[in-house]
Write a structure and sequence with these properties.
By secondary structure, the protein is mainly α. The chain has one domain. The protein is 71% helix and 9% strand. It contains 4 helices and 2 strands; from the N terminus they run αααββα. It is elongated and about 75 Å long.
């Protein structure tokens, strides 16, 4: 049987983790979705509207969803080994996302000039940026694995 006195600290810890997860998730939503949306909206002027190319708009939503999801889940499972498993998963998912979003490092976009039949085609080589993003995620992956090893070593020492 579960003792009611033993379940109170556990319930308190779960509520604390859920509150912290919700707060951090909201902050990450502000930073990864609302702030970029407001900045892009501020760049627009009445005479020269500025809009993100349509093919990249869903990627902003997907990036925000990935970051918010993994932030919330890692906070919910703080104090367990699952936190580190989700941290490793976040690093792997973000690496795949950046490779997909940056199209392997080569971005192309066509901008149609309003009122004219001219179009500007832009080609950007972002392989260096992609390499830096992947390297940062590999470092995050290694950090998460070392933290998981440390967590398990401390767990073994105490038992």
């Amino acid at each position: 049987m579960v003792n009611e006195e033993d379940s109170k600290p556990l319930l308190k810890k779960i509520i604390l983790n859920a509150t912290r997860a919700a707060l951090k998730g909201f902050i990450m939503l502000l930073l990864t979705y609302l702030l970029p949306t407001l900045i892009i909206g501020a760049l627009a002027s009445p005479d020269m509207p500025f809009e993100m190319p349509l093919e990249y708009t869903p990627l902003v939503y997907i990036f925000s969803a990935i970051v918010v999801f993994f932030t919330v889940v890692t906070e919910l499972f703080s104090g367990t080994i699952l936190r580190y498993a989700f941290s490793v998963g976040r690093a792997l998912v973000l690496m795949m996302f950046f490779i997909y979003a940056l199209n392997g490092g080569i971005l192309t976009s066509t901008i149609q000039i309003p009122g004219q039949q001219l179009a500007i085609q832009i080609l950007a080589n972002l392989k260096a940026l992609l390499a830096v993003l992947i390297l940062l995620n590999v470092l995050g992956l290694a950090k998460s694995m070392l933290e998981a090893t440390n967590f398990l070593a401390r767990k073994v020492e105490t038992t």
